[in-house]
Amino acid sequence: MQVxxxxxxxxxxxxxxxxxxxxxxxxxxxxxxxxxxLRFGNSTVPAYSMKVFALPxxxxxxxxxxxxxxxxxxxxxxxxxxxxxxxxxxxxVAEENMATNNTTMMGEVARLQSDTHGCxxxxxxxxxxxxxxxxxxxxxxxxxxxxxxxxxxxxxxRSDVHEAKPAAISESEGTNTSADEGSVRPRxxxxxxxxxxxxxxxxxxxxNAGSGIGC
Length: 215
Hints:
Helix content is 65%, strand content 8%. By secondary structure, the chain is mainly alpha-helical.
């Protein structure tokens, strides 16, 4: 297979790879080598072999399946080669084994983490403010919250208890009054008995006196 404009082809492949991996084009490194003797089986139909070097977190079973579909669709549009005539190899590279701009990927990650920790003082202040505001909102919402079923039922039970107490007091008062009435009734009967005995004794005295005078 002969490629007329390699620069245009590489540019298009770079753009599509950046879209597939959702990265900037400046993070893409694409090289292309045309091998006339490259064959896929005994057929003379053009074929390709592609190697993808990336960090380990970018290479995974589901990610590779998605990337394979998108990459082979892009190469079919650019090179006009069927997916069945291409091979893609995914090769993970550890952070300490990939370097650029005078540092490895591990060193770059450490630098970014230190920058985020340095800028995290103001963010910590904002976090504390947000926490205090959320606590105030929770306290206000709890104070003005509508009554729940549990609280109303518990309050109803308490009210029943308070209402039951006067009933008990009234019953005790009734017993006291009945006892008082019972204690008063014997006094009335005693007075009646005394009055009756006096009424009965008075005629006998008069009769005795009268009989004495008659004699």
